[in-house]
Structure formats: C-alpha cells, structure tokens
Predict the structure.
Amino acid sequence: MAPSLLQTTILTLLALAAFAGNSVLCRLALVHTDIDPASFSSIRLASGAVTLWLIVRCRRGRPEFGGSWSSASALFVYATAFSFAYVTLPTGAGALLLFGAVQATMIGAGLWAGERMSTGQWGGLVLALAGLVALLLPGLSSPPLGGSVLMLAAGLAWGIYSLQGRHRDDPAGATAGNFLRTLPLTGLLSVAAWPWMRLDGAGALYAVLSGALASGVGYAVWYAALRGLTATRSATVQLTVPILAALGGVAFLGEPITVRQLIAAAAILSGVTLVLLGRSRTR
C-alpha cells in the first residue's frame, strides 16, 4: 500500500536530510576530530551494514539479502573516495560535485543505451557541465583539485551503483547485502592504512551516525518514500541535497558560501532539472 501524501512528504524530507547529513558528518569528523578518512569510511560502512542487517531481519517474512560483489565494490569506492575528498573540500562544494558526477553518470549511461534527448535537454546538459567547469576553474575560491577529483570519482562510483541497483525487487535487501559485502574490503583498507590510522572517539561517533542513521536508516526511509514518488519526482527532489549540505556546512562548520559556488550550483541544478523534466515529458 502506497503511503499518503503527508507520509510521503515527511519520509522524503527525512531521507533528504539524512543524505545531506552524510556530508556534514564526514566533514565535521575530519575537521574537528583526529579520525583519519580510512577509519571513518570503515566505521561508516560497518555500522551501515549492521543497521541494514537489523532492518531486513526485522521485516515480516523470511529475510533475504541480495546485492552483488560488483555493486558492493562500487559502494566501497564511493564511500572511501567520499571520505578522502572531504579532507580538503568544503561541505557544500563536495556535495555539489558529488551530485553533479552522479547525475552525469546516469545521464551518460542513458545516452549510451540509446536514449534520445530533446534540444532543451541537451541545453540543460551543457548548462550543468558548464556549471561543473566553472566550479573547478582555477582561482582563489575554487575547491582543491585533489579533493575535487576524488569527489568526482565518488560520484561516478555512486552513479554506477545506482544504475546496477535499478529495477531491483527488494532494494532494501540488496542494499543490506551490498553493505555486508563491503566488510572484507573495509578490512583490507584498514590494513593498508594502518600506519596512518588515527582513531578518535568523537570522530568514530560521527562515523557511526553517518553509517547507521544517515546511510542505513536514511536508505530505508528513502525506499519507503519511493513508494509514493514517481521516478522523475524522486530524481528532482534530490536536487535539494547539495543545498541542504551547504546550509549544514554553514550552520555546523561556519563555512562560507562563495559567489562561484552559488553560480555553479544554479547552473548545475537548473541544467539537471531541464534534463529530468524533458525526460518526464518524453516518457
């Protein structure tokens, strides 16, 4: 049974806040505590795996854990690159780069599969790409190049993960299975990063909150909200995540929002909106 409009609205707002919270929590941990990005990634994925395992186990009927090793690998690359990128990136700029890369990957996959776009959609795509270029152009207010490349890689990995997870009959079970499959990979990461590992109580708490609440519970709430959203609406409402993340960076980290970021955000979000709305009309 699909949720009511009020239920869908509440669930959607909670999920979007959780997704934006991942950026804020990661940045808080890496700026205000001594935890290293590898440890943050490992704790986040492990706590997310435990939370999703419990959620699936508590459902009615026989619990099933789906997923695949290829999806788990993409999830691991996303989470790891995400954490390392936020060592240097401001919260809002990082979320915007992540979102832009995810959408570019999804749109590119559609074009590769033979989807056709209207003139307006092509214009939106060019506008979004121009926004990304404007954000990354060298200058005093441009985000660090190393962190930007890592966040773009995280977005590419998340886009691939999302593409692999489309049309799953049980997305929650598949996500739980993928998180569980990342545990051996997090073990290897911890071994590789052992000489530089720095554990911190507050940082570990932020990582657990990111994994258990913002990721585990956040995905479960999002899947519940999707029952009341069309595909285009679900994609469109995600446009707010970079904005929420930027506001979180201002509120919790005192990070300024530059004119360059505002212009780039307007171009990227407007461009992606044109593509999404054009796709909806085509369908």
Q: What stands out?
A: DSSP finds eleven helices and no strands in the chain. The two ends are 25 Å apart (CA to CA). The mean pLDDT is 89.
